[in-house]
């Protein structure tokens, strides 16, 4: 799956119990979607987990930068079924588009 939006928040880098670094960020997505005969404004805040390989890249982005995240949906943890996007690629969008 892919989702685009603005980098809204970035948590501190943490380590899992096994020592793997990770960082959670939040992306604010805004779009207009066809809803029957008209259009509906869609706005949502998506939590994204960034793993070890992408931490330096996500840390180099400024809050407010437009990004596209490629990843997959999973649950937060075995105890917490809340959905979260696990990033496999992060791309900064061209601000001039």
Structure description:
The protein has 97 residues and is mainly beta. It has one domain (2-73): Beta Barrel (OB fold (Dihydrolipoamide Acetyltransferase, E2P)), CATH 2.40.50.140. Helices cover 5% and strands 62% of the residues. The protein has one helix and six strands; from the N terminus they run ββββαββ. It has one helix spanning 55-59, and strands spanning 2-10, 14-15, 21-35, 38-51, 66-75, 83-92. A five-stranded mixed β-barrel has the order 1-3-4-6-5. It is globular, with a radius of gyration of 15 Å.
Write a short abstract of this structure:
With 97 residues, this protein is mostly beta strands.
Biggest β-sheet, characterized?
5 strands, mixed, barrel
Number of helices: 1
**Classification by helices and strands:** mainly beta
Number of strands: 6
**What portion of residues belong to β-strands?**
over 45%
CATH superfamily: Nucleic acid-binding proteins
CATH architecture: Beta Barrel
pLDDT averaged over residues:
92
Gyration radius (Cα, Å) is 15 Å
Give the low-pLDDT segments: none
CATH class: Mainly Beta
Estimate the helix proportion, in percent. under 10%
Adjacency order of strands in the biggest sheet: 1-3-4-6-5
**Shape designation:** globular
Oligomer: single chain
Please provide the ordered H/E string of secondary-structure elements: EEEEHEE
């Amino acid at each position: 799956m892919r989702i685009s939006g603005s980098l809204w928040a970035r948590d501190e880098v943490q380590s899992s119990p096994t020592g793997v670094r990770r960082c959670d960020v939040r992306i604010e997505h805004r779009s207009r979607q066809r809803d029957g005969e008209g259009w509906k404004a869609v706005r949502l805040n998506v939590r994204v987990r960034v793993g070890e390989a992408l931490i330096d890249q996500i840390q180099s982005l400024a809050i407010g930068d437009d990004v596209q995240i490629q990843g997959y949906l999973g649950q937060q943890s075995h105890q917490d079924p809340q959905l979260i996007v696990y990033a496999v690629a992060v791309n900064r969008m061209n601000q001039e588009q």
